[in-house]
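As agreed, record copied across for absentees:
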Amino acid sequence: MNILRISCSPRGASSESQRLSQKIVDRLVAQAPAANVVERSIGDGSLAHVDANYALAQHAAAAEVSSLGSMATSDVLIRELERSDAIVIATPMHNLGVPSVLKAWLDHVVRARRTFHVTAAGKVGALRDRPVYLAIASGGRFSGEQARQPDFLTPHLKAILGTIGLHDVRLFSVEGTGAGAEAVEAARARADQALAAHFAIARVERVPDAT
């Protein structure tokens, strides 16, 4: 089993999204002890935005483009996706939506004639489906009865991942981190409960029928 983790917080290992994603990775590894975890950390801004050459390749199939720059980076990132059996995206919510570093990663992997095809019926994903775990941290609450802000992050991610064939998206979050230490502990506890419930169900589903 190959697990790909994309880490998007500029705070790195100390971030809530990274902590939450580690709990997901740990549970996946517990299910498959021989699993290989591939780390792709982009929270430091090391992943550049796509260049003009890449944009030209997206726009026209017959364009003469270089295989260097963003095209080469895109190939590497897409191969990581193709080799994965599970994907974990650890991300904060920035200004109600997707952080720019995650948007840069998406722009590299959502690639015409490579990870999706345009047909008469619309865009069709070219990647095989597999579980995608979203580990999200936000300063405010965006879900449940105590939601106080809109959520433009999860709908965006579900839609764009679906474009390339990744429909099995599973959401976990630590929300309200801006409300103080007690709120953070309560949010962590809720996330732990959600993870325990999810993986308990997954474990039951994997048990073969003894009859």
About this structure: The first helix runs from residue 16 to 31.
